[in-house]
Structures are given as structure tokens and as C-alpha cells.
Amino acid sequence: MATWAWVIDGQSVYCQDGLPHRHFIPTDSTAIDHQSALALNIDLSAGEFISYRMLVSSLDIHLACQLSCAIQQIHHQNTHKYCSYCGTAFLTATSHTCPNCHHHSYPIISPCVITAVIRPNPTTQKTQILLAKHHRHTSIYSLIAGFVEMGETLEMAVCREVAEEVGIKINTPNYSGSQAWPYPSNLMVGFVARYHSGDIVLQADELADARFFDIDNLPAIAPKGTIARKIIDKICSSDG
Ligand SMILES: [Zn+2]
Question: From its phi and psi, is residue 76 left (phi > 0), alpha (psi between -120 and 50) or beta?
Fold first, then answer.
């Protein structure tokens, strides 16, 4: 059996002329990893691997989701070669039912919340968004985000993350869209919440800065194609 498949290396996708490019390969999977492609003598000399983060700003939503899925499939294959219950090796890279105990290894998707906290500017009443700069992304500001913990609802996770990272209280968060984010297999769940009370106190080991910015005076923010940018743009356009 053969099909058209994306070639994946980590979180990067094989591209030609800057665009994701599929190969017709002898597999039943819609994605194959770089090493396996080389082992099948697939010619990758005409292109290059480009990171999903770079590609996503110019992809339409359907292709972005296909590639996000392809990256997550390969990550799942590469990190689930053995049954996690009894240790038996899976028979093929794409089959994840244990041949010994029949335990099925479903792909792991990790929910993360990402939140825009908004308030009126105390002086001008203009809408402001809370943006934070992480130590690891030194040039851009983004929204408050973090993994959902066991036993939490999404809304609890939003309130906890905001309290932990910037020390403020918020009103009940409202859902604002989601995005499959293959770093390595997150489902980003977006929220908007109104500021309730408290002064910003940075979680120093995570954040370099966090402030409320007027929507007409934002710093460098997350690029197009990210859910952070989508939420920020929606707030700006509804108040613009
Ligand atoms: Zn097993």
C-alpha cells in the first residue's frame, strides 16, 4: 500500500519552495519520520525542513491541522515503541495495540489553557490586555498559559495559572477558541477573563515582565497563526 505522506523531523515539515511537500511512499500512514524516509531512499535533496512555528502563520487552517496531526503522530510513534503496561514491543510503528496484553496506547493530547486578562485602563477607560514576556521568548509578549493539572476544570486551570504567574484574581473566564499545538502534543484552549483584583507580582522563574497594555499600544506580540494572536486580534477588533 502506498499513499501521499508528509515527512516530519521533530516539529519540522519537509518543504519545497517554502511550502509543505508530500511524497508518495510505501506506507499506510499520512506521515513518516525523516529517518524512515531516508531508509526508503526518498529523495529529500530538493527541499528543506521548516519548523511548524514558522509555517503556521501562512497556512490555511485545514493544512495547519493536518501538519499538526502529522507531527503529533510521529511523536507518538517515536515515544511509544513498547506497551506501557507489559513492555512488549509493538509490531509496527503505526500499530499501538499490544500483541501480548491487547492494551491500546492512545495518542496523548495535553490540554493547556491560554488566557487574555482584560480590564479598562484605570485613567482613560480604554481596554487593556495583560501580556507577559517569558525568559525563553525574549523579544515577544504573549498571553498567560500553562498545562491543565489532574482534577482541574479548564476554568480552574485558568484561574490558577493567572494567580501563579502574575498574582492577580480574575472573574470567570470565557472560552475563546482552541488550537492543536504540536510542541509536542498540546491542545491550547483559549479564554478571555476580566481582571478582578490584585497587583501584578511576577513569577520570577517563568516571566521576565508582565503588564497591562492599551490595545492601541501593544508591544511585539505572538505571530499570526497562533491562538494567542487570534485572541488578541479579536479583543482589539471588538474594541477598535
Ligand atoms: Zn502489553
Answer: alpha
Dihedral-angle region of residue 203 (phi above 0 means left; psi in -120 to 50 means alpha; beta otherwise): beta
How far, in Å, is the centroid of ligand 1 from the Cα of 5? 29
Contact 2, 22 (CB under 8 A): no
Distance 152 CA to ligand 1 centre (A): 30
Q: Which of 142, 131, 144, 212 is nearest to 173 (CA)?
A: 144
CA pair distance 221, 190, nearest whole angstrom: 16
Other C-beta atoms within 10 Å of 15: how many?
Answer: 18
For residue 91, the CA-to-ligand 1 centroid distance in Å is: 11
Cα of 70 vs centre of ligand 1, distance in Å, is 25
Query: What is the predicted pLDDT for the residue at 93?
Result: 77
Ligand 1 geometric centre to CA of 94 (Å): 15
23 C-alpha to ligand 1 centroid (Å): 33
DSSP letters along 67-81, please?
HHHHHHHHHHHHH-S
141: which strand partners? 221
pTM: 0.90
Average pLDDT of the chain, as a whole number:
94
| SS3 label, residue 158 | helix
Task: Quote the DSSP letter at residue 149.
Answer: P
